[in-house]
Amino acid sequence: MSDINSIRPVFSVKDFNLWYGDKQVLTDISLEIPEKKVTAIIGPSGSGKSTFIKTLNRMVELAPSVRMEGGIYYKDNNIFDDAHTQVEVLRTEVGMVFQKPNPFPKSIYDNIAYGPSIHGIKDKKILDQVVENSLKGAALWDEVKDRLQANAFSLSGGQQQRLCIARALAVEPEVILMDEPTASLDPLSTAKIEDLVHDLKKDYSIIIVTHNMQQAARVSDKTAFFLNGELIEFDETERIFSNPKDKRTNDYVSGKF
Ligand code: ADP
Ligand code: MG
């Protein structure tokens, strides 16, 4: 087995702190997210998981009165240094999928073609190919190939979530952030997304926030445990679930809070 720590990081986070107004929500976070692996973020509600992943593509700045200190590097570029990292480019390379599927009120086809077309792809044949490849990448093509012009809301919740993943894939990201992507789904749809996450890590670096401990254990290579805005422990998933170093991690993964 290759040593996971020898793989170069896609993100390096160094002494990162974040406040909403006067309230500190992330404290001294340092970690390296490995490339082409699945990293799970676990922790109780309010521990800063969503805030942390929204920071990675600078979506957190859309919230009012955010203040940050410390460094976050995407492939060695400081994401807050606009001279090196344009926020639009960062958000293309670092896609996001939310808890509640949020397709556009458009056709299945247009949900996927929209991103590439605003990035300058106008040729219908190329767009057709992007739509097909993205839907295949999200394991949705076979289910929708005969109804690409149907409204996205005609799909089931699980299909809508895979459509949102396909939409993220269409702009050729490197990283996919997923914030509790199966929290609103039934067990069968959840299993399909978990299988998909497993397949996607061949080509993408994935960071998945989950409340579901079995899910973290099933899908991830590394796991970060957040508590009250602090990173308590970050290690190989197997270790976090079988032999964590910190008592608080042990208490959390064994369901004590
Ligand atoms: P989690 O995803 O782990 O449940 P969040 O990152 O959503 O945690 O929230 C962390 C803390 O930040 C919580 O106390 C939450 O109430 C607070 N918070 C989240 N978003 C905002 C915001 N836009 N303005 C002020 N406080 C916020
Ligand atoms: Mg959250």
From TrEMBL:
InterPro entries, per database record: AAA+_ATPase, ABC_transporter-like_ATP-bd, ABC_transporter-like_CS, P-loop_NTPase, PstB-like
Pfam families: ABC_tran (PF00005)
Molecular functions (GO terms): ATP binding; ATP hydrolysis activity; phosphate transmembrane transporter activity
Gene Ontology CC annotation, any one: membrane
Keywords, ordered alphabetically: ATP-binding, Nucleotide-binding, Phosphate transport, Transport
ABC transporter domain: residues covered: 11-253
PROSITE patterns for the chain: ABC_TRANSPORTER_1 (PS00211), ABC_TRANSPORTER_2 (PS50893)
Residue ranges that the Swiss-Prot or TrEMBL entry lists as coiled coil: none
GO biological process: phosphate ion transmembrane transport
PANTHER family in the record: ABC TRANSPORTER I FAMILY MEMBER 17
Name of the protein in question: Phosphate ABC transporter ATP-binding protein, PhoT family
Organism: Carnobacterium alterfunditum
Native organism taxonomy: Bacteria, Bacillati, Bacillota, Bacilli, Lactobacillales
